[in-house]
Amino acid sequence: MKHYDLQRVGEALKHFRPRRRWWRRWVKRSSVALILREADAELQVLMIKRADRDGDPWSGHMAFPGGRMDPGDNTGVRTAQRETLEELSIDLEKVGHCIGRLSDLVSRPHSGRRPMVVSPYVFRIHGPVSPVPNHEVAEAVWVPISFIADHGNRVTVTRTRGRFSLDLPCYYLGKKEIWGMSLAMLDELLGVAAIPLKLP
């Protein structure tokens, strides 16, 4: 049984007040697009598996289409739209619209010591789309929100950076790992929309 739909998510996002980093104007910024659709009687979100690239700290990771803000981007929404068009050939200005945003997250940049602020925007598409990945993307996949809402699918993985190790939540979609910032965005989306969780 479907317990939630795009209309409910959109209404919840209208009333949500995301956390914005007030100092984001003075650091590197990027935006990502969480693209939602209803298919097979359930809500789904589009994710990408980034291509394996030397020197890319997010090489091979599951993520959302997006990237660095260009000087010509007037808003974070525009960045998410442009990057989605470049990476997947999906023109969100024509086939969808933004229904809200989530809280800013802080990430390490590709280079330098200053942090980077990542702003997630949630989009609804109006009809069928066919993602065409570019060289930066190995694969695009629609992930059922019910899969993320089922905490029986959630496991713990250990990530090591230098001398430090962290135990972090993770989902395995086949051999694909959904964790880190992408999972934090999904968790916030589920919380904002009050999507019921299935606990193990």
Descriptive report:
The two termini are 18 Å apart. Helices cover 22% and strands 38% of the residues. The chain has a domain at 6-144: Nucleoside Triphosphate Pyrophosphohydrolase (Alpha-Beta Complex). By secondary structure, it is an alpha+beta fold. A hairpin with a 2-residue loop joins strand 9 (154-161) and strand 10. It is globular, with a radius of gyration of 16 Å. The strands form 2 sheets. Strands 1, 2, 3, 4, 5, 6, 7 and 8 form an 8-stranded mixed β-sheet that branches. The protein has a 3-stranded antiparallel β-sheet with strand order 9-10-11.
List keywords for this structure.
200 residues, alpha+beta, Nucleoside Triphosphate Pyrophosphohydrolase, eight-stranded mixed β-sheet, three-stranded antiparallel β-sheet, 38% strand, globular
Q: Largest beta sheet, briefly?
A: 8 strands, mixed
Low-confidence stretches: none
Please name the CATH architecture of the domain at 6-144.
Alpha-Beta Complex
Radius of gyration: 16 Å
Approximate shape = globular
Task: State the secondary-structure class.
Answer: alpha+beta
Q: What amount of the residues lies in strands?
A: 35-45%
- The CATH class of the domain at 6-144, by name, is Alpha Beta
The rounded distance between the terminal residues' Cα atoms is 18 Å
Kindly identify the CATH topology of the domain at 6-144: Nucleoside Triphosphate Pyrophosphohydrolase
Helical region count?
5
Domain Nudix hydrolase: 26-170
InterPro entries: CoAse (IPR045121), NUDIX_hydrolase-like_dom_sf (IPR015797), NUDIX_hydrolase_dom (IPR000086)
Pfam families: NUDIX
Protein name: CoA pyrophosphatase
